[in-house]
Write a structure and sequence with these properties.
The complex is a heterodimer of chains A (238) and B (178). Chain A is of the alpha/beta class. Chain A has a single domain (2-237), classed as Rossmann fold, CATH 3.40.50. Chain A is 35% helix and 26% strand. Chain A has helices spanning 46-53, 76-86, 102-112, 117-130, 146-157, 176-191, 203-206, 230-237; strands at residues 2-13, 20-31, 35-39, 61-66, 69-70, 87-90, 164-168, 195-199, 211-216, 219-224. In chain A, the strands form two sheets. In chain A, strands 6-7-8-3-9-10 form a six-stranded mixed sheet, sandwiched between helices. By secondary structure, chain B is mainly alpha-helical. Chain B folds into two domains: 3-67, Orthogonal Bundle (Arc Repressor Mutant, subunit A); 73-154. Chain B has seven helices and two strands. The N and C termini of chain B lie far apart (58 Å). The model of chain B is unreliable at 168-178 (pLDDT under 50). Classes of the chains: A alpha/beta (238), B mainly alpha (178).
Chain lengths: 238, 178
Amino acid sequence: MTIIELRQVHRTHGRGAAVVHALRGVSLAVEAGELVAVMGPSGSGKSTLLNLAGGLDRPTQGDVVVDGTVLGTLGRRALAGLRRRRIGYVFQDLNLLPSLTAAENVALPLELDGLGTRAARRLALAALVDVELPEHGARFPDEMSGGQQQRVAIARALVGERRLILADEPTGALDSQTGEAVLRLLRTKVDAGAAGILVTHESRHAAWADRVVFLRDGVVVDTSGPLVAPEDLLKAAS
Amino acid sequence: MYGYQLRASFEESTGGTWPLNIGQVYTTLTRLERDGLVQALPESEAGQRPYEITPAGRADLAVWFATPIGRGDRPRDELAIKLALAITTPGVDVAVVVQTQRGATMRALQEFTRLKTTAASAADLPWRLVLDSMVFQAEAEMRWLDHCEASLVRFKPSPPTAAPPAVPLKETEDARPS
């Protein structure tokens, strides 16, 4: 099942002589249970792609489709609602609201969406158990390590019904061991049925994905999937 | 330990990354015995000949662990050679060479990472560290390939001239007045 699809998406900034083509005809579909990494040098369009995928920005041309809904057809309010219900974000830092506990941070999108405090809290605590932080519900972000905070961010991204996680350099500020634990968790959540797009400039991190898309100057120049097992080749041939 | 046990122990630690030929194990044992670093014990009833390390062997091993591996001891880097030659060989699209290699290296990196997810227990530590070594090497190669690609864009190499320098560089350097 395709969770998100970008169809021939273009994004330009400015006009006339000062026009910048951030993305030029990028197509990408991510299925449930699939993690796609997007790699490329600074200015290649990685973050633009993620912002478009998450409905934080609109394409100049082309469509972004999330769960069968073309984002361009939605008004501001409907788009905000879809973002809250369907899409989770994990950034490099500034992920959590410092004045809220871990459980409150995770419950926030559910409460904003109208769910009662008690029900939201129950789902939030379950999400924290999922990311192996069962005892951390009452802690504030500054009482947790960077790795733990990212785990909370992942819990929030996938709390409730949400099945799409968009991660922008989620391990940027972490040491290699902690960063790897965060990627391992992301991998586990995707294997359990979520869809993920991971933007990174580190191939070691991209290697956790099923597919790696290389962007350069707003164009996909290369895509690398895992080696196909011989039995899958036979299956495809029959 | 006898030969087969040695091989099993080596492969367990390294996850079978470098499979050992049993003939190679016995040739090495014979050489170590000749040099006095191991000694053969009486053959078992099953016909297996165990070996044990000698004090000289232990000392040699300690030196081996204590000595860093020199850059010169490693095999030459065929990829670096290939890219350098690709730039100077007419009719070769270097960018394609870079891209092809990057795809293959990325797939290898994905494969190593997948293997890592299966090696999560404490007992897997030696094998996991071997995998990490390959992961970091592949990552370094990816970074270098990206760097090559960016450099190719910045400095479009001029078409190679027909005549290579007649005098090897080293001699030119030696000829300089000191």
